[in-house]
Write a structure and sequence with these properties.
The structure is a single chain. It is built from 29 helices and 39 strands. By secondary structure, it is of the alpha+beta class. It starts with 12 loop residues before the first helix and ends with a helix. Bound molecules: pyridoxal-5'-phosphate. The site of pyridoxal-5'-phosphate (PLP) has 15 residues, from helix 20.
Length: 1004
């Protein structure tokens, strides 16, 4: 008789009591427990202690029982924290006692174990915490068993050893149902081709192999905690990973939340006993194989008992789970298991991401327009979001979307990555794993059908396939790329394309960055969606071809994040694009009008809500990126990290005023003076250009004891009363009250004018004369001008370049007449003109006072006046000069850091290079457009003079195309270009292209 056929022993209560007394010295009551092959008895000793006596089947292999006993002893010492039953030795100290059989020759082996009180897992309420704890318990078991060995554990032909899975293949034909049989055959195929070859390399150990819900006992006081596992009859040596695989095969049967349960068990297990990546990768294949084994073995047995329905019914949960696993992507399950085991779901992920991050600047737009700079709206598709009521009728959805885009002038609408689109109620999004696939794995760009689609980077076409099922992608292109020369491959997917796409590219074709790879399909061909591009990155194809998941179950979104990383790594859209700004520009315009002074102005007909700056770019509330060609204050780039850090560091330490000693102000002054001619020796710090010029005028007046001022026509020097008086740009324009008597306007000279230099110098001479005349009339102490104030390139005058040597000679004339000369470097200083730090130097002028401001702190309010020792001494007439903010440590830190960046990034040279390039390109453009009257400037201080109102129209067009410009000059006929100095040649091309397109459009 085989061991299966031997009946279980059937000792009577009395006989058992006698055995207990004789061999264990126990007087006890006994209760029979169930046992298929062995006789199991509950023993309650007279002291109340409880035990389980196991009387083995006569056919039981003594070596296996000894193996189990050795294992128990090992666990008790190696893992004392692992709650479990303990061996209770006989009086002679032995773990096994021999009892003669009742009917024939031979004996039964008897063991006594302590009784573990508890609830069978099969009877307990289930929870994920419990699943985690079970995983952790089994991890503890594996950890302890890693140090255990016994020759008896080698059970080569043992039917229930998962390593022997192939041997049950012969029973597959016993599966009656054809579909079930095919399911099993598929699992075998995958196992033999992909899993079995790897088994030889894996870690091995002695395994328990039977964690089913009738063998796991939970604590009575806390059913989430494991009290013990029982029945070590399947103990055998095998691949270590089998332990978890077998447990999962049981734990995942009949559960709704497959991923949640699996994650709990695996994370629990690996928390105690870390698994290797190669073990995790085949985990779910082994789970499937364990199920295959059980259905094969039971089908084989069922064959011999055709009337026993129970055998087939009990297979059902195993077949159900097998069917689920079969319908899930097994490569995905490998990624999932890796992630649960604390590995990156995809091994190549970090390398791919790193490469994408480092190369983002070089990627081309995926559609035929620049998405970073185009206007957009965000269309959330979370449950209840506007528009989602039309989700089942995409024609209506498309109309709703178009209307929304029209309203806000958007070029495209954006659908977000990793958005939980719980509005996806369609059947196609159901998943066997419990939840529906509602999380979006790509980025959607809704725009006009037929828009061209482009490769963002070099690659090879992997597939061009029409996935024409309803709600699928329609024509789909998948490209393969490589993350650097020796880097891993990754993929990009373009879904919802047109039928024409199928003829545009072919599998195997090499593609260059920027190449057209398709066009957007309309609703009739693209799976039935409103026209859009679904763009996605994949770090692995998960064994698929021609198509790929575009949505996933929320429970595994964190795994998919690594399989389909954020497509924005390629698209490079500003993060604001994905956050809906709830306060619109229109609302801000309204509130501004209510609470801010009405004389403030806003740029552009459609005012911008700018929320962030970086380098030469500004970003509006929708994430649209603008090239800033206006801001000459954020000189070294918006929010330059070095300046920001310096401000933050100092602000968190100290901010006081010049009445205390501080080194930064002195260090900075030294550095500043080193950039200026030697005669300028003394520095005053203020907060604005206006304050600087105001102070300069005061000094000139105190020093000369005069009050008449000479200024260049169309000059602007600041917003105080005294400065409006010296600013013809203000007093002779809107709201101005005209020139005051003590102000004398010198004609604004132009480098390219027909008039000789002397003509303009005569104008200065005339001003001196009229100042002398006026001051003598006024009986002021002095006789003549107190000062002449001038920029070296006239900004508000319209970027007017002065004739060579003009300022030198004009200043000499004024100085000869006893006046002080003020060079206003507020706009043109700090290297903007690309020729040294100060523009007056290009004119060989020798000012007595230099004022500076705007770029000095890269946006932080700091300005300065630098003058001669003589003037400073005369100004120190007893009256203190105090400025609450000027020269404070934070301002000085900002100014120092700005200077550091100008030097370390060679920004003056850069301004010269980019500025010269721009000027030459605009001059070329002027040949095509006679409306361009003049192109002038120096470095990154450029003016383009246009006829009529064209300048304003070009500026308006450029704004709509995400390039920010302004106009200036007496009649606003000059486009002013004065970007942050970090503007690149590529940005310059963008500006040039926009101006050209504007002129083409406006002239057409
Ligand atoms: C040449 C010139 N000087 C002085 C000022 C005044 O500077 P702030 O606006 O910092 O007071 C300006 C401002 O535009 C300017 O362009």
């Amino acid at each position: 008789m085989s061991e299966f056929e031997q009946p279980a022993p059937d000792f009577t209560n009395q006989e058992i009591k006698e055995i207990l007394l004789r061999h264990y010295g126990l007087i006890a009551t006994v209760t029979m427990l169930v046992g298929e092959r062995d006789q199991n008895v509950m023993v309650t000793a007279d002291d109340g202690a409880r035990y389980v006596m196991k009387i083995a089947n006569v056919a039981e292999n003594a070596a296996i029982l000894t193996l189990q006993n050795d294992l128990f002893r090992h666990l008790a010492s190696a893992a004392p924290d692992l709650s479990m039953a303990l061996l209770y030795p006989a009086l002679d100290g032995q773990d096994l006692v021999q009892i003669p059989t009742k009917v024939e020759q031979g004996f039964h082996l008897v063991r006594m174990m302590t009784y573990v009180d508890g609830i069978l897992l099969a009877d307990a309420d289930r929870s994920q915490q419990q699943n985690f704890n079970i995983g952790q318990y089994l991890g503890g078991l594996s950890k302890a068993l890693a140090g255990f060995g016994s020759p008896a554990a080698f059970r080569p032909g043992f039917l229930w050893s998962l390593d022997n899975a192939a041997s049950v293949g012969r029973f597959a034909n016993d599966i009656a149902d054809a579909e079930n049989r095919q399911l099993v055959e598929r699992a075998f195929e995958r196992y033999t081709s992909l899993v079995q070859p790897k088994l030889g390399q894996l870690r091995k150990s002695v395994l328990y192999q039977d964690a089913n819900d009738n063998n796991i006992i939970m604590c009575p006081e806390d059913p989430d905690k494991v009290a013990a596992v029982i029945d070590f009859g399947d103990v055998a040596y095998g691949c270590t990973i089998n332990e978890l695989a077998i447990a999962l095969a049981y734990m995942l049967m009949d559960v709704g939340d497959l991923y949640g349960t699996a994650r709990a068990v695996i994370t629990g297990y690996t928390a105690r006993f870390p698994l290797l990546a190669e073990e995790l990768e085949i985990l779910f294949d082994l789970v499937a194989m364990r199920l295959v084994m059980s259905v094969c073995i039971s089908s084989n047995r069922a064959r011999d008992f055709p009337d026993n329905d129970y055998l087939t019914i009990s297979q059902q949960p195993a077949f159900d789970l097998l069917r689920k696993l079969d319908s899930l992507n097994s490569d995905f399950l490998s990624c999932f298991a890796r992630e649960c085991g604390a590995f990156d779901a995809v091994e190549s992920y970090p390398q791919v991401i790193n490469w994408l991050n480092n190369n983002q600047q070089a990627f081309k737009s995926v559609v035929g327009f620049d998405i970073q700079c185009s206007s957009r709206i965000l269309v959330p598709m979370t449950a209840g979001s506007p528009g989602t009521e039309f989700i089942l009728d995409q024609q209506q959805y498309a109309e709703w979307l178009d209307a929304g885009m029209d309203r806000s002038g958007a070029k495209f609408a954006l659908g977000a990555y990793m958005e939980d689109r719980s509005c996806y109620v369609m059947e196609q999004f159901n998943s066997v794993a419990g939840e529906s696939r509602s999380v979006h794995l790509g980025i959607d760009l809704f725009t006009a059908a037929a828009t061209t689609v482009h490769a963002p980077m070099d690659g090879v076409v992997v597939s061009v396939q029409n996935n024409d099922a309803a709600l699928d992608y329609g024509p789909t292109v998948i490209l393969q790329h490589q993350a650097g020369a020796n880097g891993p491959v990754f993929y990009t997917l373009y879904g919802h394309l047109s039928l024409q796409t199928l003829d545009i590219v072919a599998a195997g074709q090499n593609i260059n960055a920027g190449d057209i790879i398709g066009t957007l399909g309309d609703i009739t061909v693209n799976g039935g969606w409103a026209p859009h591009l679904h763009f996605q990155i994949m770090t692995t194809m998960l064994g698929q071809h021609g198509n790929f998941n575009g949505a996933c179950e929320p429970a595994v979104a964190n795994v998919w994040r690594l399989i389909t990383p954020d497509p924005n790594l390629v698209l490079g859209l500003a993060h604001e694009s994905f956050n809906q700004d709830i306060v619109s520009p229109a609302e801000l315009v309204k509130s501004r009008a209510e609470i801010l002074g009405p004389s403030y102005s806003l740029s552009y007909d459609k005012p911008l809500k700018i929320v962030r700056g970086q380098g030469a770019y500004l970003f509006d509330h929708s994430g649209r990126q603008y090239l800033d060609c206006v801001n000459n204050i954020c000189h070294v780039g918006h929010c330059h990290p070095r300046v920001v850090q310096a401000i933050a560091d100092q602000a968190s330490l100290l901010n006081t005023n010049t009445r205390y000693l501080h080194e930064t102000i002195l260090d900075y002054s030294d550095r500043l003076l080193a950039t200026l001619p030697d005669h300028l020796e003394v520095v005053y710090f203020v907060c604005t250009g206006s304050e600087a010029n105001e102070l300069a005028l005061r000094m000139a007046k105190v020093f000369t004891e005069r009050r008449d001022i000479i200024t260049l026509d169309w000059g602007y020097h600041g917003n105080t009363s005294a400065l409006i008086d010296v600013s013809p740009y203000k007093f002779n324009r809107n709201g101005g009250k005209g020139k005051k008597d003590h102000i004398h306007i010198a004609e604004l000279p132009e480098a390219n004018s027909d008039k000789p230099l002397d003509h303009y110098l005569t104008s200065v001479q005339n001003c001196i004369l009229s100042a002398q005349e006026h001051s003598s009339q006024e009986h002021s102490a002095g006789d003549g001008p107190a000062a002449m104030i001038a920029e070296s390139i006239s900004g508000c005058g319209g970027q007017v370049i002065l004739p060579e040597g003009y300022l030198q000679k004009a200043f000499e004339l004024v100085q000869a007449a006893g006046g002080v000369c003020i060079a206003d470097e507020v706009q043109v200083g700090f290297g903007r003109t690309g020729k040294g730090m100060w523009s007056f130097a290009a004119q060989s002028a020798k000012p007595d006072i230099v004022t500076m401001g705007k770029p000095m702190g890269n946006g932080h309010p700091i300005a300065a006046v630098v003058t001669t020792r003589k003037i400073a001494d005369a100004f120190a007439n007893g009256m203190e000069y105090f400025n609450s903010f000027g020269g404070n440590p934070v301002s000085m830190a900002a100014a120092s850091a700005t200077l550091d960046v100008i030097e370390s990034e060679n920004l003056i040279e850069h301004a010269n290079k980019v500025g010269t390039y721009m000027m030459s390109e605009f001059k070329v453009m002027a040949r095509d457009f006679p409306q361009i009257m003049d192109v002038r400037g120096a470095g990154l201080f450029i003016g383009i003079e246009l006829t009529g109102t064209l300048a304003a129209d070009v500026v308006g067009y450029a704004r709509d195309h995400a390039v920010l410009l302004s106009t200036d000059g007496p009649k606003n006929t000059v486009i002013k270009i004065k970007p942050p100095m970090v503007i690149s040649l590529r940005d310059a091309d963008r500006l040039i292209a926009v101006v050209r397109r504007a002129l083409e459009k406006l002239m057409s």
